[in-house]
Amino acid sequence: MAAVVAWAGLLAGAAGCTGESGAGLDRMLGKAPAPEDVVRVVPDDGAKGVGPGTRLRVRVPDGRLESVKVVRSQDAEETRVPGRISADGLSWRPDDDRLALAARYTVDTVALDGDGNRSARHTTFTTQVPEERFIGYVTPEDRSTVGTGMIVSLEFNREIENRAAVERAVQVTADPAVEIRPHWFGAGRLDFRPREYWKPGTRVTVALRLRDVEGAPGVYGLQDKTFAFTVGRSQVSLVDAARHTMQVRRDDELIATVPITAGAPKTTTYNGKMVVTEMLELTRMNGATVGFKKKNGKGEYDIPDVPHAMRLTESGTFLHGNYWAEDVFGSANVSHGCVGLRDVKGGGSDTPAGWFFDRSLIGDVVEVVHSKDKEVAPDNGLGGWNMDWEEWTDDGSVD
């Protein structure tokens, strides 16, 4: 029987897309400059179809860059983009100025502003796909080790009209063998999963035979690629929003009960099964990006250095560390919808948030119960586990 970690007496915090509002945060954090004022990234966050001649640049108007990490994802393979910070610390540029076609780029930066305050920024953009071609951006990455809740997901850059042909050109198999079925979310996304969570140790292979497949009139596939990933140990965490706790189970054994804070009465947390899709040691969270705005259009909160952030939904639900509020963990729900765990500024490995982050994988399942909110939509992140098997397989997919 595994030893159970009990975080007794650890009662502090709110959450990061969550967190206190108004004067409470202002007192703790001061009036932080907007993220684009601290770290400026070109191309813009969320840009699509960026041309190969566009120059990727990162700079700060004052202060200095501490770290810059740029990753290119192409055909389910991640590649670190080499580059260097200038001697004065004000800018970063890649060693090769050319951007790859049909790729997704992520830029993660940490900088000190002119007053010495640390701030993080996370941006993404995608590059141009040749005319009359389509590709699928694939989750997870090639050669990755993932949690048992991972769902294979393809997001297409163009709407697919000939779904049957595209579906037949994508083959997902497992060793040991298990039935895997597809499900379409609209015309732009195709997901695959088994009936139950993957068994630990399973090796999953994805073959994309999309090259020259006609996905829509006159629009043909570009990819011919096989990749694989491995399923690691099982870790499923149960967040009880009413009890303000999270039980962490590893290979079906309870290993920890952690005090948490969830969504406040007016900004409740989704119920249901959610899957970790992104892990960030430090990131910035601004309420304006997820619809929490003041009358002046600025975010209800703007926290420049949220530690140990794990994305659960595409709409902005995270499980993350918190250092800026007190006396709420295990006793009150005060967030804007995220799940918060106690942490320290900069992130600590011996805090509940650091402990959980260090033991988590992309693909782990976090299930929320007893929140006064609806169930998370199955296409909001990798939420497909909230559909029963009959519903998953009854969408007109090819048998």
TrEMBL record:
Residues 235-369 form the L,D-TPase catalytic domain. Keywords: Acyltransferase, Cell membrane, Cell shape, Cell wall biogenesis/degradation, Lipoprotein, Membrane, Palmitate, Peptidoglycan synthesis, Signal, Transferase. The keyword Ribonucleoprotein does not apply. The active site is at H320 (proton donor/acceptor), C338 (nucleophile). It comes from the Bacteria. Pathway: Cell wall biogenesis; peptidoglycan biosynthesis; Glycan biosynthesis. GO terms for molecular function: acyltransferase activity; peptidoglycan L,D-transpeptidase activity. Pfam families: Big_10 (PF17964), YkuD (PF03734). PANTHER family: L,D-TRANSPEPTIDASE, L,D-TRANSPEPTIDASE YCIB-RELATED. This is Lipoprotein. The lineage of its organism: Bacteria, Bacillati, Actinomycetota, Actinomycetes, Kitasatosporales.
